[in-house]
Amino acid sequence: MKFFKPTVVAVAMLTVLGCSQEAQEETTKAAKLDTEIQKQAYGLGASIGLYMQRNLEQQKKLGLGLDRDLITQGFVDSIDGKSLLEQEEIQTLLTTLDKQMKTKQQQMSAKSSVEGIAEGQKFLADNAKRDGVKVTASGIQYEVITEADGEKPLATDTVVVHYAGTLLNGEEFDSSIKRGEPAVFPLNRVIGGWTEGVQLMSVGAKYKFTIPSDLAYGPKGNPPTIPGNAVLQFEIELLEIKKEQAVVELGKVPAEVTEKAAVVK
Fold first, then answer.
1. Would you say 15 and 49 are in contact if contact means Cβ atoms under 8 Å apart?
2. Same domain, 79 and 151
3. pLDDT the model gives residue 160
4. In a designed cystine with 116, which of 130, 200, 207, 229 is the match (CB 3.0 to 4.6 A)?
5. Residue among 3, 42, 173, 177 flagged as catalytic
6. Do 134 and 80 fall within a single domain?
7. Which entry of 71, 234, 236, 241 is annotated as an active-site residue?
8. How many domains does the chain have?
9. Residue 169 belongs to domain with CATH number
10. What is the pLDDT of residue 15?
11. Which positions of the chain have pLDDT values less than 50?
12. What pLDDT does residue 264 have?
Protein backbone atom coordinates (compact mmCIF):
# COMPACT_ATOMS: atom_id res chain seq x y z
CA MET A 1 0.00 0.00 0.00
CA LYS A 2 1.30 3.48 -0.86
CA PHE A 3 0.94 5.55 2.29
CA PHE A 4 -0.44 9.07 2.03
CA LYS A 5 1.84 11.99 1.32
CA PRO A 6 2.00 14.84 3.86
CA THR A 7 -0.50 17.01 2.00
CA VAL A 8 -3.08 14.19 1.98
CA VAL A 9 -2.39 13.41 5.63
CA ALA A 10 -2.99 17.01 6.62
CA VAL A 11 -6.32 17.11 4.82
CA ALA A 12 -7.37 13.70 6.10
CA MET A 13 -6.83 14.82 9.68
CA LEU A 14 -9.79 17.13 9.21
CA THR A 15 -12.40 14.51 9.96
CA VAL A 16 -10.71 11.94 12.15
CA LEU A 17 -12.39 13.12 15.34
CA GLY A 18 -14.65 15.85 14.12
CA CYS A 19 -11.58 17.76 13.35
CA SER A 20 -11.59 21.26 14.78
CA GLN A 21 -11.39 22.40 18.37
CA GLU A 22 -14.69 24.16 17.92
CA ALA A 23 -16.33 20.93 16.79
CA GLN A 24 -14.91 19.11 19.79
CA GLU A 25 -16.33 21.76 22.14
CA GLU A 26 -19.79 21.51 20.56
CA THR A 27 -20.14 17.77 20.04
CA THR A 28 -23.87 17.89 20.73
CA LYS A 29 -24.51 20.40 17.98
CA ALA A 30 -25.55 18.76 14.71
CA ALA A 31 -24.05 19.94 11.42
CA LYS A 32 -26.24 22.25 9.36
CA LEU A 33 -26.97 20.76 5.96
CA ASP A 34 -29.59 23.18 4.68
CA THR A 35 -27.86 24.19 1.45
CA GLU A 36 -26.15 22.35 -1.38
CA ILE A 37 -22.79 23.90 -0.58
CA GLN A 38 -23.09 22.80 3.05
CA LYS A 39 -23.86 19.25 1.95
CA GLN A 40 -20.92 19.30 -0.45
CA ALA A 41 -18.59 20.45 2.31
CA TYR A 42 -19.86 17.80 4.71
CA GLY A 43 -19.71 15.13 2.00
CA LEU A 44 -16.08 16.00 1.24
CA GLY A 45 -15.23 15.78 4.92
CA ALA A 46 -17.06 12.46 5.31
CA SER A 47 -15.22 11.03 2.31
CA ILE A 48 -11.85 12.07 3.70
CA GLY A 49 -12.81 10.67 7.10
CA LEU A 50 -13.68 7.27 5.65
CA TYR A 51 -10.39 7.22 3.76
CA MET A 52 -8.50 8.01 6.94
CA GLN A 53 -10.47 5.45 8.93
CA ARG A 54 -9.57 2.66 6.50
CA ASN A 55 -5.89 3.55 6.70
CA LEU A 56 -5.93 3.71 10.49
CA GLU A 57 -7.59 0.29 10.63
CA GLN A 58 -4.96 -1.17 8.33
CA GLN A 59 -2.16 0.34 10.42
CA LYS A 60 -3.69 -1.20 13.54
CA LYS A 61 -3.75 -4.65 11.92
CA LEU A 62 -0.06 -4.22 11.14
CA GLY A 63 0.72 -3.25 14.72
CA LEU A 64 1.41 0.38 13.76
CA GLY A 65 -1.65 2.07 15.20
CA LEU A 66 -1.41 5.86 15.35
CA ASP A 67 -2.92 8.05 18.08
CA ARG A 68 -6.04 9.67 16.63
CA ASP A 69 -5.89 12.55 19.11
CA LEU A 70 -2.35 13.41 18.02
CA ILE A 71 -3.38 13.26 14.36
CA THR A 72 -6.16 15.76 15.03
CA GLN A 73 -3.88 17.95 17.14
CA GLY A 74 -1.26 17.98 14.41
CA PHE A 75 -3.87 19.16 11.92
CA VAL A 76 -5.20 21.92 14.20
CA ASP A 77 -1.69 23.11 15.11
CA SER A 78 -0.69 23.17 11.46
CA ILE A 79 -3.58 25.32 10.24
CA ASP A 80 -2.94 27.67 13.19
CA GLY A 81 0.70 27.95 12.19
CA LYS A 82 1.87 26.28 15.40
CA SER A 83 3.17 22.95 14.15
CA LEU A 84 5.70 21.35 16.49
CA LEU A 85 7.52 19.75 13.56
CA GLU A 86 9.24 21.23 10.51
CA GLN A 87 8.10 20.17 7.04
CA GLU A 88 11.36 18.36 6.33
CA GLU A 89 11.05 16.32 9.52
CA ILE A 90 7.42 15.46 8.73
CA GLN A 91 8.46 14.18 5.31
CA THR A 92 11.18 12.01 6.85
CA LEU A 93 8.83 10.61 9.48
CA LEU A 94 6.15 9.69 6.95
CA THR A 95 8.69 8.12 4.60
CA THR A 96 9.89 5.95 7.50
CA LEU A 97 6.29 5.04 8.38
CA ASP A 98 5.66 4.06 4.78
CA LYS A 99 8.68 1.72 4.80
CA GLN A 100 7.62 0.20 8.13
CA MET A 101 4.15 -0.55 6.78
CA LYS A 102 5.54 -2.17 3.65
CA THR A 103 7.86 -4.35 5.71
CA LYS A 104 5.01 -5.41 8.01
CA GLN A 105 2.78 -6.17 5.02
CA GLN A 106 5.45 -8.34 3.41
CA GLN A 107 5.99 -10.26 6.65
CA MET A 108 2.27 -10.83 7.17
CA SER A 109 1.80 -11.81 3.53
CA ALA A 110 4.62 -14.38 3.72
CA LYS A 111 3.22 -15.86 6.93
CA SER A 112 -0.31 -15.95 5.55
CA SER A 113 0.90 -17.59 2.34
CA VAL A 114 2.61 -20.43 4.23
CA GLU A 115 -0.40 -20.95 6.48
CA GLY A 116 -2.70 -20.83 3.45
CA ILE A 117 -1.09 -23.90 1.84
CA ALA A 118 -1.70 -26.19 4.82
CA GLU A 119 -5.16 -24.78 5.51
CA GLY A 120 -6.19 -25.05 1.87
CA GLN A 121 -4.99 -28.63 1.43
CA LYS A 122 -6.83 -29.80 4.53
CA PHE A 123 -10.03 -28.00 3.55
CA LEU A 124 -10.00 -29.44 0.03
CA ALA A 125 -9.42 -32.96 1.33
CA ASP A 126 -12.28 -32.71 3.82
CA ASN A 127 -14.65 -30.91 1.48
CA ALA A 128 -14.21 -33.51 -1.28
CA LYS A 129 -15.71 -36.13 1.04
CA ARG A 130 -18.97 -34.24 1.52
CA ASP A 131 -22.15 -35.50 -0.14
CA GLY A 132 -22.96 -33.68 -3.37
CA VAL A 133 -19.43 -32.40 -3.97
CA LYS A 134 -17.96 -33.26 -7.35
CA VAL A 135 -14.28 -32.89 -8.26
CA THR A 136 -12.91 -32.17 -11.74
CA ALA A 137 -9.65 -33.58 -13.08
CA SER A 138 -7.89 -30.29 -12.35
CA GLY A 139 -9.06 -30.30 -8.73
CA ILE A 140 -11.96 -27.84 -8.83
CA GLN A 141 -14.74 -28.84 -6.45
CA TYR A 142 -18.35 -27.89 -7.11
CA GLU A 143 -21.86 -28.39 -5.81
CA VAL A 144 -25.05 -27.91 -7.79
CA ILE A 145 -27.40 -25.49 -6.05
CA THR A 146 -29.77 -25.06 -8.99
CA GLU A 147 -29.44 -27.16 -12.14
CA ALA A 148 -30.53 -26.11 -15.62
CA ASP A 149 -30.57 -27.62 -19.10
CA GLY A 150 -29.36 -26.07 -22.29
CA GLU A 151 -26.29 -24.66 -23.95
CA LYS A 152 -23.09 -24.26 -21.97
CA PRO A 153 -20.57 -21.48 -22.65
CA LEU A 154 -17.24 -21.92 -24.35
CA ALA A 155 -14.04 -20.37 -23.03
CA THR A 156 -14.18 -17.86 -25.90
CA ASP A 157 -17.68 -16.68 -24.96
CA THR A 158 -18.61 -13.71 -22.80
CA VAL A 159 -20.84 -14.52 -19.85
CA VAL A 160 -23.22 -12.55 -17.64
CA VAL A 161 -23.22 -13.80 -14.05
CA HIS A 162 -24.15 -12.98 -10.50
CA TYR A 163 -21.64 -14.19 -7.95
CA ALA A 164 -20.29 -13.91 -4.42
CA GLY A 165 -16.73 -14.83 -3.47
CA THR A 166 -15.53 -15.77 0.01
CA LEU A 167 -12.39 -16.92 1.78
CA LEU A 168 -12.41 -20.17 3.73
CA ASN A 169 -13.09 -18.25 6.96
CA GLY A 170 -16.37 -17.05 5.44
CA GLU A 171 -15.19 -13.50 4.79
CA GLU A 172 -16.77 -12.14 1.61
CA PHE A 173 -14.26 -10.32 -0.60
CA ASP A 174 -16.41 -9.60 -3.64
CA SER A 175 -20.07 -9.74 -4.66
CA SER A 176 -21.89 -8.60 -7.79
CA ILE A 177 -25.12 -9.16 -5.84
CA LYS A 178 -24.20 -6.50 -3.28
CA ARG A 179 -23.25 -4.13 -6.09
CA GLY A 180 -26.70 -4.72 -7.56
CA GLU A 181 -25.39 -5.35 -11.07
CA PRO A 182 -24.37 -8.60 -12.83
CA ALA A 183 -20.78 -9.00 -13.95
CA VAL A 184 -19.99 -9.31 -17.66
CA PHE A 185 -16.64 -10.66 -18.85
CA PRO A 186 -14.92 -12.88 -21.43
CA LEU A 187 -14.62 -16.32 -19.86
CA ASN A 188 -11.00 -16.75 -20.95
CA ARG A 189 -9.84 -13.60 -19.16
CA VAL A 190 -10.52 -14.59 -15.58
CA ILE A 191 -8.86 -17.00 -13.14
CA GLY A 192 -8.52 -20.56 -14.40
CA GLY A 193 -11.01 -21.93 -11.91
CA TRP A 194 -13.71 -19.67 -13.34
CA THR A 195 -12.84 -20.41 -16.96
CA GLU A 196 -13.15 -24.13 -16.39
CA GLY A 197 -15.97 -24.14 -13.85
CA VAL A 198 -18.46 -21.85 -15.58
CA GLN A 199 -18.22 -24.00 -18.73
CA LEU A 200 -19.93 -26.75 -16.74
CA MET A 201 -23.04 -24.61 -16.32
CA SER A 202 -26.12 -23.89 -18.42
CA VAL A 203 -28.00 -20.59 -18.33
CA GLY A 204 -30.12 -20.47 -15.20
CA ALA A 205 -27.84 -22.81 -13.23
CA LYS A 206 -26.28 -21.87 -9.92
CA TYR A 207 -23.20 -23.69 -8.60
CA LYS A 208 -20.91 -23.37 -5.62
CA PHE A 209 -17.24 -23.74 -6.54
CA THR A 210 -14.25 -24.36 -4.29
CA ILE A 211 -11.17 -23.38 -6.29
CA PRO A 212 -7.61 -24.46 -5.38
CA SER A 213 -5.12 -21.62 -5.13
CA ASP A 214 -3.19 -22.69 -8.24
CA LEU A 215 -6.39 -22.11 -10.26
CA ALA A 216 -7.09 -18.84 -8.45
CA TYR A 217 -4.44 -16.22 -7.54
CA GLY A 218 -1.58 -18.51 -6.55
CA PRO A 219 1.26 -17.63 -4.14
CA LYS A 220 0.97 -13.87 -4.76
CA GLY A 221 -2.73 -13.66 -3.99
CA ASN A 222 -4.61 -10.47 -4.83
CA PRO A 223 -3.77 -7.99 -2.03
CA PRO A 224 -5.17 -6.60 0.08
CA THR A 225 -8.29 -8.82 0.02
CA ILE A 226 -6.97 -12.24 -1.04
CA PRO A 227 -3.83 -13.67 0.62
CA GLY A 228 -1.31 -15.85 -1.16
CA ASN A 229 -2.16 -19.54 -1.70
CA ALA A 230 -5.79 -18.93 -0.74
CA VAL A 231 -8.44 -21.47 -1.66
CA LEU A 232 -11.50 -19.52 -2.76
CA GLN A 233 -15.21 -20.29 -2.81
CA PHE A 234 -17.71 -18.78 -5.22
CA GLU A 235 -21.44 -19.07 -5.65
CA ILE A 236 -22.08 -18.36 -9.32
CA GLU A 237 -25.35 -18.01 -11.21
CA LEU A 238 -25.07 -18.04 -15.01
CA LEU A 239 -27.54 -15.50 -16.39
CA GLU A 240 -26.61 -15.22 -20.07
CA ILE A 241 -24.11 -16.35 -22.69
CA LYS A 242 -22.89 -13.87 -25.29
CA LYS A 243 -21.41 -15.88 -28.13
CA GLU A 244 -18.17 -14.81 -29.72
CA GLN A 245 -18.82 -12.96 -32.98
CA ALA A 246 -17.25 -14.51 -36.05
CA VAL A 247 -14.61 -12.34 -37.71
CA VAL A 248 -15.18 -11.67 -41.41
CA GLU A 249 -12.02 -11.35 -43.47
CA LEU A 250 -11.83 -8.37 -45.75
CA GLY A 251 -12.84 -9.22 -49.32
CA LYS A 252 -14.81 -12.31 -48.30
CA VAL A 253 -18.58 -12.59 -48.15
CA PRO A 254 -20.01 -14.38 -45.10
CA ALA A 255 -21.52 -17.81 -45.94
CA GLU A 256 -24.99 -16.84 -44.67
CA VAL A 257 -25.08 -13.89 -47.09
CA THR A 258 -24.15 -16.17 -49.99
CA GLU A 259 -26.86 -18.65 -49.02
CA LYS A 260 -29.51 -15.91 -48.84
CA ALA A 261 -28.47 -14.64 -52.28
CA ALA A 262 -28.83 -18.16 -53.69
CA VAL A 263 -32.34 -18.43 -52.25
CA VAL A 264 -33.36 -15.10 -53.78
CA LYS A 265 -32.21 -16.25 -57.20
1. yes
2. no
3. 97
4. 229
5. 173
6. no
7. 234
8. 2
9. 3.10.50.40
10. 39
11. 1-28, 253, 256-265
12. 40
